[in-house]
């Protein structure tokens, strides 16, 4: 009982702390995207606090489950009580917590979709663009600007040509990530950070679409969660704790990458088409990924089943 309570405290502590931290980072970055040079603004706007929690919550729950596994490896806790508690938390995460978060996210987006803020660039600053350098000498309140443009790439005329800017719309568009290129150049994320975030964003988009399609679609998508939960079966494949940690983290990353590659349509596209024909009529969506996730879950689970009695015996646990 004490082990279960300890795991619950650890899990929910990580979820609460991680969600708050993720929301703060989301809020900070979101405000950077709307920041304009020479314009008074704040980097902290609590309008983005709630969306930040919604965006980060599924990832935080998954990482909290992974943290529970790593904690059990650290303390060599492979008891049946810990395993059952972990499995219950895993099922709750994928069939209660994350669907509830997605439902609230959809409702929030529906309510806020008409609120589009258009930031206007300030004058008196040189800004680099893909084609050259521009200087805005006057910007009207409605976002129309006058100034000069130096063509450094030869996109319009010979390189070095100075062109006049008249009544150019310099208000940010809905498709712009950053309102000001000066802020973009200084705040753009490195690939080390942006690539994992893009993978997570792609999975979130597909997960939301599956949730909106209905129960069958969500269950099909949630087989990824089953594969991730089953990574716990690799917790005791070796007597070296660091090696066990590596196996668990590596398999979790591989599982996430395989699902990303499938849902993004980059790598598995041709395979998915053939498998869709082969499994035509099956009562699941994305049968190729369902089977692949089941294979991952099966391998990890069987590894755990084989290794668990040996580990328990070496630790002196009575298996009844």
In short:
By secondary structure, the chain is α+β, with helices and mostly antiparallel strands. It has nine helices and four strands; from the N terminus they run H-H-H-E-E-E-E-H-H-H-H-H-H.
The fraction of residues assigned to DSSP E strands is 5-15%
- Termini, distance in Å? 17 Å
User: Main β-sheet: number of strands, strand sense, barrel status?
Assistant: 4 strands, antiparallel
Average pLDDT for all residues:
80
Class inferred from helices and paired strands: alpha+beta
What is the overall number of helices? 9
Q: Which value, in Å, is the CA radius of gyration?
A: 25 Å
H/E topology pattern:
HHHEEEEHHHHHH
Number of E strands: 4
Contiguous low-pLDDT stretches (5 residues minimum) are: 112-116, 316-320
Helix content: 55-70%
Q: What is the global morphology? A: elongated
For the largest beta sheet, what order do the strands appear in spatially?
1-2-3-4
